[in-house]
Design a protein that fits this description.
- Helix content is about 90%, strand content about 0%.
- The chain has four helices and no strands.
- It is globular and about 50 Å long.
- The structure holds adenosine-5'-triphosphate.
- Adenosine-5'-triphosphate binds near residues 23, 81 and 89.
């Protein structure tokens, strides 16, 4: 295994994450994640509940990263309006929405019984 190549790939991946931080949607997910973590600390969650919350936070952020990558590729391949380009962007955004909806439902299932 080439260790230098591995660390170089890691650095590029981190660059990708920092590039996406400039996206408004990505920041929205980050702020939402911080609010959920604070709520979790104040409410008191079990290890299993924390594991589920952490998993869903990373899944939503990962989905947003893939969505941003797809947006960039579409902008590169089709700077002019094209119905297929629209479908690609809208479907990628739809994927993030599906993950975000799942995270809201899971959040309600975990937090609501403790708060009520
Ligand atoms: N090349 C294109 N061809 C057809 N429709 C497009 C194209 N680019 C964008 N769209 C449509 O416009 C919407 C908004 O696109 P826009 O590029 O403004 O934002 P985005 O790429 O979704 O996100 P961001 O603002 O973070 O780059 C898309 O969801 C899509 O429906």
């Amino acid at each position: 295994m080439n260790v230098r190549k591995f660390f170089r790939s890691f650095r590029y991946a981190m660059e990708g994450i920092f590039t996406a931080v400039n996206e408004q949607n990505f920041r929205f997910h980050l702020v939402s994640a911080i609010i959920v973590i604070i709520a979790g600390v104040l409410t008191g969650l079990t290890i299993v509940e924390w594991s589920i919350i952490v998993l869903i936070i990373f899944l939503v952020i990962g989905a947003e990263l893939i969505n941003t990558a797809i947006e960039r590729v579409v902008d590169l391949a089709s700077p002019e309006f094209h119905p297929i380009a629209k479908q690609a962007k809208d479907i990628a955004a739809g994927a993030v929405l599906v993950f975000a909806l799942a995270s809201v439902i899971i959040g309600l299932l975990i937090f609501l019984p403790k708060w009520l």
